[in-house]
């Protein structure tokens, strides 16, 4: 199994594409069907974030191993305007333009690890990890 | 991917066949708003059985479909939300609070029929 898969994100069609690619990738790692749905939903929110705020970016899926555990690492990377206030963007109810602002805080809830690095004018990189139960 | 919309009696049934892009969801919304007028439909069923993900955008669009069609005089029922999808929606904090939902097409039709019956008998 290839350890990495990349999906370029440029439009809303690519959100669907990333979701399908990511789900297949996670299925090969052996996640349950309930976990696959959570992973696909997280990918959808992260990819939409790119389309909404940066227009262009990339989703990267990687198989990860740690102390006998297997998981997936999902990276959403863009070179968009960046997020001015990361803390605020992660709050529930933070009003983003089209998705009720549930995207980031919701995604954070459904994964095991969530990291965000954003610099205004440079872009945003979000890395999430989910481990097999 | 266009969503087929069938007319059955006074109802419209939109059966989503595969994953939809944001643009597809919005055109479904617009198409239903138009057809409810064209066919004078009183009830609409949106069957989401085939959707493996209902993210914040899809959920928001389902709500706006139901609210728009209500303003056009039709009742909307969302049917077929899969158990895993329901679980993910709850985890994400997504709700369809003021939108009618039913287990499947059959239950959705029964829901609409009950509504029409109440209306016809003038029950309050």
Summarize the structure in short:
The complex is a heterodimer of chains A (133) and B (124). Chain A has 133 residues and is an alpha+beta fold.
Description:
The complex is a heterodimer of chains A (133) and B (124). Chain A has 133 residues and is α+β, with helices and mostly antiparallel strands. Chain A has a single domain (4-131), classed as Heat Shock Protein 90 (2-Layer Sandwich). Chain A has four helices and five strands, in the order E-H-H-E-E-H-H-E-E. Chain A has a five-stranded antiparallel β-sheet with strand order 1-2-3-5-4, covered by helices on one side. In chain A, helix 2 (33-53) packs antiparallel against helix 4 (103-110). Chain A is globular, with a radius of gyration of 14 Å. Residues 96-101 of chain A have low confidence and may be disordered. Chain B is 48% helix and 18% strand. A five-stranded mixed β-sheet of chain B has the order 1-2-3-4-5.
Task: Map the helices and strands.
The complex is a heterodimer of chains A (133) and B (124).
Chain A: E1 4-9, H1 12-29, H2 33-53, E2 57-66, E3 69-78, H3 86-89, H4 103-110, E4 113-119, E5 123-131
Antiparallel strand pairs in A: 1-2, 2-3, 3-5, 4-5
Chain B: E1 5-8, E2 11-15, H1 22-38, E3 43-47, H2 56-71, E4 75-79, H3 83-92, E5 100-102, H4 105-120
Parallel strand pairs in B: 2-3, 3-4, 4-5
Antiparallel strand pairs in B: 1-2
Helix pairs in contact in B: 1-2
């Amino acid at each position: 199994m290839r350890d990495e898969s990349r999906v370029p994100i440029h439009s809303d069609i690519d959100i669907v594409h990333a979701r399908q690619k990511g789900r297949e990738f996670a299925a090969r790692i052996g996640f349950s069907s309930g976990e696959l749905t959570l992973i696909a939903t997280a990918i959808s929110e992260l990819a939409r974030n790119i389309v909404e705020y940066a227009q262009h970016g990339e989703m990267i899926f990687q198989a990860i191993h740690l102390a006998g555990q297997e998981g997936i690492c999902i990276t959403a990377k863009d070179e968009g305007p960046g997020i001015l206030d990361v803390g605020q963007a992660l709050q529930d109810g933070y009003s983003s333009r089209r998705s009720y602002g549930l995207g980031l805080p919701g995604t954070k809830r459904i994964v095991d690890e969530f990291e965000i690095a954003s610099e205004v004018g440079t872009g945003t990189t979000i890395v999430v990890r989910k481990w097999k139960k | 991917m266009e969503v087929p919309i069938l007319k059955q009696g006074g109802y419209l049934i939109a059966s989503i066949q595969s994953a939809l892009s944001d643009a597809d969801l919005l055109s479904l919304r617009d198409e239903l708003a138009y057809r409810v007028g064209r066919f004078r439909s009183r009830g609409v069923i949106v069957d989401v059985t085939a959707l493996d993900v209902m993210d914040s955008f899809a959920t928001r669009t389902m709500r706006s479909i139901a609210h728009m069609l209500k303003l056009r005089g039709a009742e909307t029922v969302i049917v077929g939300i899969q158990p895993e999808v329901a679980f993910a929606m709850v985890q994400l904090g997504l709700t369809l609070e003021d939108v009618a939902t039913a287990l499947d097409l059959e239950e959705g039709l029964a829901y609409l029929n009950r509504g029409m019956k109440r209306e016809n008998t003038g029950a309050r």
